[in-house]
Amino acid sequence: MAILAGIDEAGYGPLLGPMVVSCSAFSLPDEYLKRDLWGLLSNAVAKDGRKLSGRILITDSKKAYKKSGDIRQLRRTVLSCLGACGCESSMPGTVQELFGRLAPDCCGQLSEYPWYDDIGQTPINADADTSIAGGALQRNLQESRMSLPALRSRFLEVSSYNEKVNTVKNKARVLFGEVCSLIQYIWDTFGGSGQRICVLVDHQGGRVRYHRELLRMFGDFSLKILSEETCRSSYELGSGGDRMRIHFITKADQNFLPVCLASMVSKFLRELLLERLNSYFIRNLPDLKPTAGYWQDGQRFVNDLKSYGAINYNDSEKLIRCK
Predict the structure, then answer these.
(1) What tens digit of pLDDT does each residue of 151-199 get?
(2) Alpha helices in 197-308 (DSSP H)
């Protein structure tokens, strides 16, 4: 058996809101490593939102998310996959419980922000269809001799993000550090099990060479460069007798199901937090137009808040990300 994991982010570029990085990990027979997982799981999963027929959508989050703020597809996919992880008997009921399940190492950040005070009372709104879809995926996985043993996220809210960027003077390095934290999580969870471990990561900007950064982050591991090419850079990390291969691939978030799922988890968590931020300010300013947090509209949102006198210096420090 092997572990095939995917890692992707949401919110790397915006002015407002968190940056979220997630991973999904599938256990599967070795010979499936190069197979199309959408084909293997076609009874429960679809890549095209127009051809679901009751299945869950797993695709690049940019295709699953509606600009109107409709997160129903993201919710259905993430919660169904949590169910397929064997979590359906304890499905999270609130946003706070969901973050506690998926990003337990980062949840302490949320208490610093007044707009997240109500996440313990904000329902996650899982429905019966979600449970049915999760059960169908679990059956399809079992029939294919597969499982989904891990979904995990990390996020940096604005203060933490700004602190790290100001320390290393490079936001790409901050993102890479969070990616490496999830690679370490995969190693800690599955290393030593005797399974082959393969990690797929969407290309980080226009970078081709990652070996120096990997050595910096994994100094106790041996590192072998397998290839460094325009569209794909591959490495093998080793410790003791265990090995893990990591592939940075252009458009991985469009072509590999584990990366697509990670993309959707990241986007769902980010949008849930943006919903709380918008709700917090609009509660007292009903004429305020909500924001998705990207630079131009984020600046408009901040300027509107300033014109209403609705934010002070401390709020600005927690609201606006540095470049």
Answers:
(1) 999 999 999 999 999 998 889 999 999 999 999 999 999 988 888 999 9
(2) 211-217, 252-255, 257-282, 295-308
Answer whether 0.85 is exceeded by the pTM: yes
The phi, psi pair for 150, rounded to 5°, reads -150, 130
pLDDT tens for each residue of 99-141: 999 999 999 999 999 999 999 999 998 777 788 888 899 999 9
CA atoms of 79 and 206, how far apart (whole Å): 33
Query: Which residue in 146, 14, 148 sits closest to 81, CA to CA?
Result: 148
How many C-beta neighbours within 10 Å does residue 280 have?
A: 17
Domains in the chain (CATH in brackets) are 2-276 (3.30.420.10)
DSSP assignment of 28-81: E-GGGTTS-HHHHTTTTEES-GGG-TTPEE-S-HHHHS-TTS--HHHHHHHHHH
